[in-house]
Structure formats: C-alpha cells, structure tokens
Write a structure and sequence with these properties.
By secondary structure, the chain is of the alpha/beta class. It has one domain: Rossmann fold (3-Layer(aba) Sandwich), CATH 3.40.50. Helix content is about 45%, strand content about 15%. The chain contains 5 helices and 4 strands; from the N terminus they run βαβαβαβαα. The termini are far apart.
Length: about 150
C-alpha cells in the first residue's frame, strides 16, 4: 500500500537491542562510517531475553511508527539462551498484535552480531523503507487504551 501523500513522512523507529551483539554492531556501523537512516533511537538491554514486550506496546503508544528488536545470533547469547526466550515471546506477542490490529510488519525481529555493522545498516534502512511505505502509525489511542486497561487491572 503506497502512501504518496506521505512523501515527507519520516518514521520514528525505536530499536530494543542486546548490549553485547546488536549494540556493538550498531557501534561498528558508526565507527566504520557506514551510512544508514537516522530515524532509529536505540534502547540498550543486557539481553533481548530481558525485554518485556509491553515496552513495545508502550513505544507505539508513545508515538513510534515502527520497532526493531535485535540481539545475538542463536547459540551466541552471552546469557546462554536469552535470545531463544525472546524469540519464543515474539511468537506469542505476534498474536496480541493481530488482536490489537497492529500490522506485524511494523516490528522487525532480527539477530545482528557485534561484527555485522553492515547488516545493522541494512536492517535499519530496510525497516525505515517498510515503515515509510506503511505510513504513519495513527492507532496510538487504541494501544494506550489497552495499556490503560491493563494498568487498571493490577
């Protein structure tokens, strides 16, 4: 679906990344002077296994148009299996996104190692292009309402 009226649209992307692999890979991208889109704001975690996926909903509720979750490759996790836990959570989280009516193309799940600066740049550029095509995410209220109900249940 092309949004020609969004030609000036610059998506806001939040990246939740592992400290040991993806964050180091993103750092390598910069130190290698590899050009990539500047639309991404990085939130660093010790491990993707520590990411509570309600944070992803909060990112949407706070104005993100897209999200990247990225960590160590399988069997390279510094915490043994955190990336596998994150991957299993992602599979469950996808059904919640469908329930909320959030297009799953707005969230990218990837593995990027500390040595893959070019892969990080490609991931960011591809994600930004995909979100530009999808257009701005305007369903903030729906996500905020859902989060408000969850908070009220506690």
């Amino acid at each position: 679906m092309s949004n020609d009226n969004n030609s000036a649209f610059e998506p806001r992307i939040i990246a939740f990344v592992c400290n040991w692999c993806t964050y180091a890979g993103a750092d390598l991208t910069g130190t290698s002077r590899i050009k990539y889109a500047t639309n991404v704001r990085i939130v660093r975690f010790p491990c993707t296994g520590r990411i509570d996926f309600l944070l992803l909903l909060k990112a949407f509720a706070s104005g993100a148009d897209g999200i990247i979750v990225s960590g160590c490759h399988p069997n390279d996790c510094h915490y043994t299996s955190g990336n596998f836990h994150a991957r299993r959570r992602w599979m469950v989280f996808r059904s919640l996104l469908d329930t909320l009516g959030i297009d799953t193309r707005r969230i990218r799940y990837s593995w990027v190692s500390a040595a893959e600066g070019a892969k990080w740049a490609d991931l960011v550029n591809d994600t930004v292009a995909t979100i530009r095509e999808l257009g701005p995410y305007n369903e903030y209220k729906k996500v905020a309402d859902y989060l408000g109900k969850e908070a009220g249940d506690e």
